[in-house]
Amino acid sequence: MDRIYAIGDVHGCAEQLDALLRQIHLHAAGAGIDRPKVVCLGDYIDRGPDSKGVLDILTGPKMDQFEPVFLLGNHDLVLVGVCEGGLPSWDWVSEHGGQKCMDSFGHFPARNFKLSIKHFRQAIPPAHKAFLAALKASVSHRYGPWFFSHAGVNPNRALDQQTAMPMIYGDIDMFQHDHDALAPNLRERLGACVVHGHFVSRSKQVDVHPHRICVDTGAGYPGGKLSAVALFNDGRVEVLT
Asked: What is the pLDDT of residue 194?
């Protein structure tokens, strides 16, 4: 296979995800690829209107058309904790889109926060819980000249020496060479181009640099959209939105 696809942060935008998966399948079919390899970069939930719908798609028969790799995002990690019996912070509900996630599963009045979370946990289907539990062991993926993680890497460490924290939450040092001549050197030193999400690009467009590609174009935010990239073994990048 001469290419791999990567989908940016979905954030509860089920209709956009469904449309983008159809586009990826048609794009691959045009090259004679029946079951394309697709890396989903995490943050499947929160902010957008239908987190449950997104998880229904990702755990449903539509994904049989693909060879999927699902990576863990920081928002997903909160829901993993909920499924394991934990209590999320109120900030997750009130400021980070968690209420939208809960609303997509049902109505859970907030008069008693602990009780609401308990009922929410009970409403999450077993297939979703199994999907989320499996994400805990999936924070990165390597394919040819491409290295995938939700939020990037620590650029001061070799790729085989990365820890989970920068790959889930990000490292601002990753951006230090975006606009200078050292970016190709950083890619050479890392041995791959890092493909990530997490940081919404200011232009709401896929952000392409020699050493990194950010595929988070603001799905779930006002004016944002869901994007993907087709990444070729020869280093070419094609944007799909």
From this structure: 96
* pLDDT for the residue 90: 92
Interatomic CA distance for residues 20 and 23, integer angstroms:
5
User: What's the token pair of residue 36?
Assistant: 């394309």
Q: Which residue has the tokens 């006002």?
A: 222
Number of domains in the chain: 1
Q: What percent of the chain has pLDDT above 70?
A: 98
Q: What is the mean pLDDT of the chain?
A: 94
How many whole angstroms separate alpha carbon 88 and alpha carbon 102? 12
> In 86-192, at which residue ranges do the beta strands (DSSP E only) sit?
140-143, 146-149
pLDDT at 133: 97
**Domain with 138 in it: what CATH number?**
3.60.21.10
Give the global pTM: 0.95
User: Band of the pLDDT at 189, cuts 50, 70, 90?
Assistant: confident
The CA distance from 211 to 194, in Å, is 6
Is 203 buried (19+), middle (13-18) or exposed (0-12) by CB count in 10 A?
exposed
- 202: exposed, middle or buried (Cβ count in 10 Å: 0-12, 13-18, 19+): exposed
Residues 6+ apart with CB under 8 A from 218: 200, 201, 204, 224, 225
Q: Which domain holds residue 216?
A: 3-240
